[in-house]
């Protein structure tokens, strides 16, 4: 008990960095508090984030703002149909002066990567991100280069325009810890956006944190206590998506084509710890799981044609699972 109290105090002191990010982001981003919070969760958990929403919802601005606050090396990559893997990771260039090949590193060598409209590029370019996202390293020629920490890929995609796009392969989508759905702002929020962006000076976020602050916070997130009952709760949610009939969810059996992968289990646990950190707690509670579970699992549960014909969404499946699985 004493250890938990000490950890709580340590987390409460360190959690001030999340308030700094939220406060500074609010100078630029109007509303979207939950999206900003979940982007911070991805940052603290060391997980990559996929943002999906129609054009003009400030997805790119949101990612850019967070990277400015952390004062880290930021690169924006506009994914286009003619982009090549070498444009992303770099290539070998022959130097006539030295009579040898030298490495020209690509934009992937940064702390924060904004992969803008990632579904605009073909699979060979998307797959070039795989090693970097999973292994935190890049191979150019015969040499392998470690990427600087913190390293985070934040990708955006447009769901409404399908012509000229290449859907992300399931293997790559699974590498994103969170998939966030960005929705339209409320009427009052949009009024505030209108007023802010017709002023002479557009608001900007200031650099308040360093990459070392994020690395230190990530180390603390790993220390957060996860009880065995919470572990079982996570496992039940994930296994219910694979074997719904074992959890008295027989009506979902013909709706799910494939369930969540083991990455969902790992990411749900880490993201729940980051959520507890955000709330200034040294331990995870079931509400932390329920807050982040949709974002961790919506891109990891496949639906059958029957489910799609009935206009069922992944969120509906997750809601059914949460309603049935016993909360500790």
Index terms:
5-stranded parallel sheet; 328 residues; two-stranded antiparallel sheet; 2 domains; Helicase, Ruva Protein, domain 3; 16% strand; alpha/beta; Rossmann fold
What can you tell me about this protein's structure?
This protein is α/β, with parallel strands linked by helices and 328 residues long. The protein folds into 2 domains: 14-200 and 208-216, Rossmann fold (3-Layer(aba) Sandwich); 224-324, Magnesium chelatase subunit I, C-Terminal domain (Helicase, Ruva Protein, domain 3), CATH 1.10.8.80. Helices cover 47% and strands 16% of the residues. It contains 14 helices and 11 strands. The protein has helices at residues 2-14, 16-25, 33-45, 59-70, 85-89, 123-135, 170-173, 187-197, 211-223, 228-242, 262-278, 286-297, 305-309, 314-324; strands spanning 48-52, 74-78, 90-95, 100-105, 112-116, 137-140, 143-146, 152-157, 176-181, 256-258, 302-303. A 5-stranded parallel beta sheet has the order 2-5-8-1-9. The radius of gyration is 21 Å and the shape is globular.
């Amino acid at each position: 008990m004493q250890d938990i109290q000490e950890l709580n105090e340590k987390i409460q002191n360190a959690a001030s960095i999340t308030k700094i990010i939220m406060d500074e982001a609010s100078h630029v981003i109007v509303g979207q508090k939950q999206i900003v919070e979940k982007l911070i969760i991805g940052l603290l958990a060391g997980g990559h984030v996929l943002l999906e929403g129609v054009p003009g919802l400030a997805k790119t601005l949101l990612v850019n703002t967070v990277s400015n606050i952390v004062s880290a090396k930021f690169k924006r990559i506009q994914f286009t149909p003619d982009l090549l893997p070498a444009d992303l990771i770099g290539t070998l260039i022959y130097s006539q002066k030295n009579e040898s090949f030298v490495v020209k590193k690509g934009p992937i060598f940064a702390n924060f990567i904004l992969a803008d409209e990632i579904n605009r590029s073909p699979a060979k370019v998307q797959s070039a991100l795989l090693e970097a996202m999973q292994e935190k390293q890049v191979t150019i020629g015969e040499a392998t280069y470690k990427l600087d920490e913190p390293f985070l890929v934040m990708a955006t995609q447009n769901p409404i325009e399908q012509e000229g796009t290449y859907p992300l392969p399931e293997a790559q989508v699974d590498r994103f810890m969170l998939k966030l759905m960005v929705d339209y702002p409320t009427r009052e929020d949009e009024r505030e956006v209108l007023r802010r962006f017709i002023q002479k000076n557009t608001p900007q976020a200031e650099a308040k944190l360093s990459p070392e602050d994020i690395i230190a916070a990530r180390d603390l997130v790993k220390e957060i206590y996860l009880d065995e009952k919470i572990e079982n709760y996570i496992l039940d949610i994930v296994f219910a998506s694979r074997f719904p009939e074992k959890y008295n969810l027989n009506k979902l059996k013909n709706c799910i084509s494939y369930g969540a992968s083991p990455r969902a289990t790992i990411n749900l646990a880490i993201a729940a710890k980051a959520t507890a950190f955000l709330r200034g707690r040294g331990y995870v509670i079931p509400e932390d799981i329920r807050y982040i579970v949709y974002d961790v699992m919506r891109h990891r549960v496949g639906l059958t044609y029957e489910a799609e014909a009935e206009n069922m969404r992944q969120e509906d499946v997750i809601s059914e699972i949460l309603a049935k699985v016993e909360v500790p």
